[in-house]
Design goal:
Layout lengths: L10 E12 L2 E13 L5 E2 L2 H15 L4
The protein binds zinc ion.
The site of zinc ion has 8 residues, from loops.
Length: 65
């Protein structure tokens, strides 16, 4: 897939680190699957992955679960 940011590089599957924040709670998630551009280094995490991580943060930060 061609990079949407620089329009030059090819994106390749890799891993990145995401910082999620919710209600003042910060959670750093390492090893998140992402598509990384070989040219500009842009990291794209799919919406599906983001949604799953946000849900996990939500559950972890809900007191009366
Ligand atoms: Zn790029």
């Amino acid at each position: 897939m061609k990079c949407l940011v620089c329009n030059k590089g090819e994106t390749r599957p890799g891993r990145t680190t995401l910082v999620l924040e919710r209600d003042g709670t910060k959670l750093t998630v390492e090893g998140v699957p992402a598509m990384i551009c070989a040219n500009c280094g842009d990291e794209t995490v799919s919406e599906e992955v983001k949604a799953k991580l946000l849900k996990a943060v939500q559950e972890a930060t809900t007191e009366d679960a």
